[in-house]
Amino acid sequence: MSDHLEQSFVKQLKDNQNIIHKICRLYTTGQDAHNDLFQEITIQLWKAFPKFRGDSKFSTWAYRVALNTAITLYRKSTRSVSTISFEGQYHFINPEDYNHEEEEQIKLMYQAVQQLNDIEKALVFLYLEDKDYTEISETLGISEVNARVKMNRIKGKLKKILNP
């Protein structure tokens, strides 16, 4: 591939890597699994990049590729490895920046979202990213009406999970 194509890809990836990290956090537990999924998504984005025509924003396209990669990988995954969560990644946060209560709420929300199916997780993720229903429907390949209906059902599910 040309240097220009590679430079364009690297810039777009750098500008949008938070999207990929958030999807990895949603579909994995543990830093090793996160890193593996991030790497696999990056590879899939790179392989597909020459076909990216710019019909949609790069971020919308990257969401689609990343979500499809995450869903495909975790549907294929038949073995499960018992892991222990390591919370040592917070060592770089200054104590004054750390809000324990907020962190606990975020953990509870992620635990609740982990109980949803793959499409529901993707929809919640896009919703929490403040994507409008037009972009959500484009990314997931469903109608806007279907996206709204699914989101309302998911909100109900999450309320039941978080407030049994």
TrEMBL record:
Pfam family, one: Sigma70_r4_2
Gene3D superfamilies: 1.10.1740.10, Winged helix-like DNA-binding domain superfamily/Winged helix DNA-binding domain
Domain RNA polymerase sigma-70 region: 15-79
Keywords recorded for this protein, A-Z: Sigma factor, Transcription, Transcription regulation
Domain of life: Bacteria
Residues annotated as domain RNA polymerase sigma factor 70 region 4 type: 109-158
Annotated family: Belongs to the sigma-70 factor family. ECF subfamily.
Name of the protein described by the UniProt record: Sigma-70 family RNA polymerase sigma factor
